[in-house]
Design goal:
The chain is an alpha+beta fold and 190 residues long. Helices cover 34% and strands 29% of the residues.
Length: 190
């Protein structure tokens, strides 16, 4: 079960559900190119609303299976949609548990929100791993030209004593193989 998690600065992480579609569309329309960088499977030439709706349906329907955990970042006071962050199952390495993906809408970027949210999620997952005596490997894959995404992933990786894989890995996007930088974090820590 995906829990609601509190953040600093009056922000919270709420489990994703279909009701956020209008907010998600508004954020997408703020900067479609940035959204497509974060959601590379999204095809802007077809029905974006339908694709986003399908994604929300898939995430909500699988949330109870403990294979996916997706949240939307919310301002508790205004209920503003700030972004998405989640633990998904698009994995590159055998033995990995989740991949971390994040997207903060442009009007809220450069405020450390993705790092704050990732740290909260990793704290939750770290505690859960210790209590249940589990091991989780989390991947963060970032396109090498996404300098903001690389900086965020590197800071998360450093905070959680992860490692950055030196070689690029190829990820299929559309019908092309695109090189990405891979960051790996193992939980529980130490």
């Amino acid at each position: 079960m995906t829990p609601e998690l509190e953040l600093d600065r009056g922000l919270s992480l709420k489990p994703v559900n279909k009701s956020i579609l209008p907010f998600l569309l508004e954020a997408y329309n703020e900067d479609p190119n940035a959204a497509q960088t974060a959601l590379p499977w999204l095809d802007a030439s077809t029905n974006v609303q339908g694709q986003l709706s399908d994604m929300l349906f898939d995430v909500e329907s699988q949330a109870g299976a403990d294979r996916l955990h997706f949240w939307w970042v919310s301002n508790a006071e205004t209920n503003d949609f700030i972004g998405l962050i989640g633990l998904g199952d698009e994995l590159q390495l055998v033995g990995s548990s989740y991949n971390l993906g994040y997207w903060v809408r442009p009007s809220f970027q450069r405020q450390g929100i993705a790092i704050m949210a990732a740290n909260r999620i990793f704290s939750w997952l770290d505690e859960r791993a210790r209590n249940e005596q589990e091991h989780h490997r989390i991947e963060i894959t970032v396109h090498p030209h996404n300098t903001a995404g690389l900086a965020t992933a590197t800071r998360i990786c450093q905070a959680w004593q992860g490692e950055i894989v030196e070689e690029f890995i190829g990820i299929e996007i559309g019908e092309r193989t695109v090189p990405h930088r891979l960051h790996i974090i193992d939980l529980p820590r130490g």
